[in-house]
Write a structure and sequence with these properties.
12 helices; two-stranded antiparallel ribbon; 12 strands; eight-stranded parallel β-barrel; TIM Barrel; alpha/beta
Length: 277
């Protein structure tokens, strides 16, 4: 399988917040080919561009909140183009923009508009899902409605295989469903000890964290380094290859198993190396 592998820098944000350059150096040393940004940690686009060029990491993509892009599309998108990002992904929808709300149709329109602007700068827009997009609208998953509504040249997929599984859908089959529209696939492992999803799942990805409740919820749901949870990665990777994916992005929203975030990122990279990637 001929993939390039990137790390979502959000996975090691506690290191990046202290020293972005040394964090990127550690990521390179682990054997990652590139990085996906989620913010620039107080640095300018030019500074980040210089860092990745010096270190030898490919700045393949960036997660940029929808409202941030909409606030000044040309300014925001041109900064990531300057860094060298090939992709920008809509990472997450606030509640008032999600399927089942009046804001969802406007969200689709906004995404299509941004897809046209990113093309101006030579960047492809992606959408990074969670599980709430698997709510059905007229018998179809809202995520499918989004992809049906926006032309494929303006919006491609960044399927987060963890959240697809959490939604009760087979990640490998879902990746294959978007063959030739899935250039980047998110790899994330997890454990979930109960049949019902916990109420506080999104606190685990850094949304409105309440520490006591968060710790209680992690007993029933927790992120893990690749190969240490329930995901069937051989099947997912075969599907990604069949779908024409070029990049795999490793993400772990919160460290676990008593390891630091950097140790978890290393465990994930070593797992992929161990299966030939």
């Amino acid at each position: 399988m001929a993939f390039s592998v990137a790390l979502q820098v959000y996975s090691v944000r506690d290191y990046a917040e202290r020293d972005l350059k040394s964090t990127l150096q550690k990521i390179k040393k682990m054997g990652y080919d590139g990085v996906e940004f989620a913010g620039l940690y107080g640095h300018t686009a030019s500074e980040v561009k210089q860092m990745v060029e010096e270190i030898g990491l490919i700045p393949i993509s960036a997660h940029v909140p929808l409202d941030e892009m909409l606030s000044d599309p040309d300014k925001v998108i041109s900064e990531y183009a300057h860094i060298g990002c090939k992709y920008i992904a809509v990472p997450y929808l606030p509640e008032d923009r999600r399927p089942g709300t009046e804001g969802f149709q406007q969200t689709i329109k906004d995404i299509e508009m941004l897809g046209n602007i990113t093309h101006k700068y030579g960047i492809q827009l992606l959408y990074h899902n969670h599980d709430f997009e698997f709510q059905k609208i007229d018998g179809e998953y809202a995520l499918d409605v989004l992809y049906q509504s926006v032309p494929s040249e303006l919006l491609k997929t960044e399927i987060d295989t963890c959240w697809v599984n959490v939604a009760g859908v087979d990640p490998a089959e879902y990746v294959k469903k978007y063959s030739d529209r899935a250039p980047v696939v998110h790899l994330k492992d997890f454990v979930m000890g109960k049949s019902e999803k916990p109420d506080k799942m999104y606190e685990l990805i850094g949304i409105d964290s309440d520490k006591k409740e968060e710790e209680e919820e992690e007993e029933v749901f927790g992120f893990r380094p690749l190969g240490h949870g329930i995901q069937n990665f051989p099947a997912i990777l075969t599907a990604a290859e069949e779908a024409g994916a070029e990049w795999l992005v490793v993400e772990q929203d919160k460290p676990s198993m008593g390891k630091t975030s950097m140790e978890c990122a290393d465990i994930s990279r070593q797992y992929l190396k161990g299966i030939g990637i």
